[in-house]
Structures are given as C-alpha cells and as structure tokens.
Amino acid sequence: MLTKIVQWAQGEPEIRVVILEGSRASDCNTDALSDYDLNVFVTDGASFTSNNHWITIFDDVLVYQKEKFFHKNIEIPTRLVVYENSPKVDFSFWPIEMLHEIVDSKTLPEHYRNGYKVLLDKDNITQDMPAALFDGFVIGKPTKDEVLTTIYNFWFETYCIVKYLKRDSLWYAKVLENGPIKRFLLQMILWHESSKDDWKNNKIKEDTWRSLCKMTELFKKLSREVAAKLSIEYPGKSVAQIETYIRQLYNG
Questions:
Q1: In whole angstroms, what is the distance from residue 121 CA to residue 128 CA?
Q2: For domain 2-128, which architecture applies?
Q3: Distances (CA, A) of 16 to 40, 123, 200, 236
Q4: Rg of the chain over CA atoms, in angstroms?
Q5: Would 201 disulfide with which of 50, 81, 158, 197, CB 3.0-4.6 Å?
Q6: InterPro entries, alphabetically (predicted)?
Q7: Residue 123 Cα distances to 51, 127, 175, angstroms
Q8: d(CA 103, CA 98)
Q9: Segment 70-101, tens digit of pLDDT
C-alpha cells in the first residue's frame, strides 16, 4: 500500500513531501489493523480535496470520510479511507510552508515526537528535521497564540450553545456542549495541571488512573441498571475478568 501511495505522490507535482506518523512510525507494536497516518505536504491541495477520485487508485474503497482539523489556526483537510484489502489510510494535506516552519524552528510538533518516517521528500526539506524523541504524549508549554485561541474558541462555542437553547434547538445545543466546548475545557485543564509542576511532570499518571477508576465504577452502575430495566443479563463475569486484568496490567 505505501509503495503505491509513494509512487502516486511522486507523479503529482503539487505533492512535495509525504511523512508517515502514528503507531506505524513509532516504536509501538502494530498489527494488520493499524492505520497508515500520512501527512501530505503540498504547494496546492485543491485538486486532492475538490475531487476524491484519487483515493480509488490504491485499492477498492469500502467507505471514506471527509474531515478537517485545525493546526495553529490553519485548516488541514483530511480523507479517512477504509480499503477492502488494506488497512485504513488517513490522508491529511498540509501547506508546504508549515513543514518549513517545523524545520526552521528545530522543534518537533506533538504528533512527530513519538516517531515519524519520511516516505518522500522531493526537495530535501526534511534533512534538518530533529530526530523523534519517542517520549509518548507530552503536554508542552503552550504559546500565547494557543492559549488565547483556546479562550476565544471556548467562549464562541458557549455563545452558540446559548443561542440554540434560546431557539429550543436542544439537540444542537447538546452536540456542541459535548463536543467542541469540552475539548477546549480539557485542553485548559491539561495546561493548568502541567503548569503546577513547571511543565515537567506531564504524565499526570495517578490522577488519570483515579479518574479512570471512578468512570468505570459509574459505567458499571449505569450499565447494570440499564440491563436490568431491559431484562438483559448483565455480563458480570466478563466485566470482572477484564477489570481484574486491567488492574493487574496497571499495577504490574
């Protein structure tokens, strides 16, 4: 699959660099279901996002999804593709200028810290990129722009929720409440906790474990009650087995 993709990218003049990130580029164990996470750096990505025929070149497509995310306020379009005979491939299209910024800053962004592989570099841009640190997820000290953007985004979404509430559009309000606004809240919580230890203790391991245990207890209580009301036999034995395994895994 990667060979086909690289060969295709080689023949597309707008594509300058292709980088593999994620589990297949790190020290993590992978299996046949592990995704290919590909960052495609382009001079112009319009031809790849306005027409999706190109995704059929590599294998028969079962289903695909058009998504986007934002990195430093720049919209990054993606195509998430499930193929019939290959693992899922996540294509993301980045402006080539963003790769130049990474190289010039001599600092890896979060998604490259735990591993990356350069599959194609037509202009030798990546030759001076720092090596991956393989240190897992680290909460770095945010920039002024990141903090302010998160603050403004949170309050913008809050306004939208109230607007939908006033219109009695309760489902729209609930979707926003449980989607974007909670992501911004979680981001601020992570920064707040990391700032207490001068950004050094980024794992917050024990707090996360305690929180996870509370969530599992709540989930067990709710799922038992739901199963009882629906006359469904609760799989108590299976739940107990996986719970024991999880605790042994954490404490081992």
A1: 12
A2: 2-Layer Sandwich (3.30)
A3: 8, 7, 36, 54
A4: 22
A5: 197
A6: Aminoglycoside_adenylylTfrase (IPR007530), NT_sf (IPR043519)
A7: 26, 9, 44
A8: 9
A9: 888 899 999 999 998 888 999 999 999 999 99
